[in-house]
Amino acid sequence: MTDVALDPDRSVGTLYRKVAADLREAITSGSYGEAGRLPAEGALAERYGVSRGTVRQALAVLRADGLVTSRRGTRRVVLGNARVQSFSELLSFTHWARSMGEEPGGRLESLLRRPADAAEREQLRLEPGAEVYVTLRLRTLSGTPVMVERTVYPSWVGELVAQLPADVVSHTEPLREHGILFTDADHTIDVVAANADDARLLGCRRGSPLLRERRRTTDPTGIPVEWSQDRYLPGTVAFSIHNSLASSALSRHAREGD
Amino acid sequence: MTDVALDPDRSVGTLYRKVAADLREAITSGSYGEAGRLPAEGALAERYGVSRGTVRQALAVLRADGLVTSRRGTRRVVLGNARVQSFSELLSFTHWARSMGEEPGGRLESLLRRPADAAEREQLRLEPGAEVYVTLRLRTLSGTPVMVERTVYPSWVGELVAQLPADVVSHTEPLREHGILFTDADHTIDVVAANADDARLLGCRRGSPLLRERRRTTDPTGIPVEWSQDRYLPGTVAFSIHNSLASSALSRHAREGD
DNA sequence: TAGTGGTCTAGACCACCGT
DNA sequence: CGGTGGTCTAGACCACTAG
């Protein structure tokens, strides 16, 4: 068999993404079974009319999403067939909400401009005396409050944010149109007690536990574009991670000591 | 300049890992500055005496760890120079603790064997009537209680766990020597209230918030080997994740009814 | 032993960035 | 425009798995 027709509209333009999308659909539709085996790389290369390298690139995508394993000597095994699509969801509350079929909402509670404190200068790599914009927003899903978002922007970003309507749903989308890209992020997740503002906005008691996500986002050049702290009502959200030893074991594997 | 000497003991045997390790050291030691630029792929290939493909493989490693960005048309930018080892930590409390310079400890509180309930059969893909081993362990860092771990093992794994000493620090290490590998894991992180056992073991009040990590781990063939639920005292740990638009391992999803 | 994925090479063309 | 990273090809050898 040669050259399966690849939907030209599928995903973005590159070949390996098209192959990955096609394989993903085959897997999630159950074509290979729940714990079944994928065809060999060479067979897939022939089927799609591409080189083995391109097939491997496509399979790397599926593996990063936790769809398949890979081991030397054996065909790849299907891990699951109902995984969430990952990626940009995490970088944007709006995208995440919509992908779940929920209607995201946002209301700006306050916005102010002031000099950055030491921690903010550290996180955003600002010079002493630099100013930042600080926003406080209540985020909703289908009208229900779920999260309080405190974001600190460097002034060159904040100036644009300040011009957005108070009820704009997405911040990242209009910023992207101004050439400001959110591409890399560091996240820290822990628990924190609700303060007075949290309690008022979310309708919970002071001191009740909230799931906190702190996030520093940079653009492709490594320049920080936001430092945000989101506090979620328990039960409204959970963070999900997939990881694989094989793919990232490249770190140190010393036998002991460290 | 040609062929920089690569430490033959560095990391594991493959070329790209050696290159990655060498570059990581150069970056973390500040050779390229905080937001500096890396040499071009071609230059690195020449320097190390390898092909450009191998250099790209090495750089993919550093990028997955959040050390560098990459953009078409521009040299790679150094993002940070002091990042913690991220991914594999999630697979093992012991490794994570040691990587932080803390001394991990564990005490087995209870171990029992019983028929799996519906949820456990679902998670571990067991047949009706199958039995599981359930453990309850208190985990400590340098002697201080930080986490309660409830793990469900399929019987073929549990039989081995049951033979381990009650105070063994790591479970995954002795299991690996029996050929049981923990390679892929799905994690879900949220908040939960402490129950009576949690409160007693961790020394907190009933109902006080705990950070919960649920984890299902599989071996390379996709067979589930454990289903675990860890409850951390607030302030003792935070989960840290790095992701970029191009390749991500983290996603967020609505909380389902357990 | 045959088949598989992991690694590596040496080229090629293109899209994009900055000058 | 030249330099860069992103993609893709066509081969090669090896380490490992399984029958």
UniProtKB/TrEMBL annotation, chains A, B:
Gene3D superfamilies: Chorismate lyase-like (3.40.1410.10), Winged helix-like DNA-binding domain superfamily/Winged helix DNA-binding domain (1.10.10.10). InterPro entries: Bact_HTH_transcr_reg (IPR050679), Chorismate_lyase_/UTRA_dom_sf (IPR028978), Tscrpt_reg_HTH_GntR (IPR000524), UTRA (IPR011663), WH-like_DNA-bd_sf (IPR036388), WH_DNA-bd_sf (IPR036390). Keywords: DNA-binding, Transcription, Transcription regulation. Residues 13-81 form the HTH gntR-type domain. This is GntR family transcriptional regulator. It comes from Kitasatospora kazusensis.
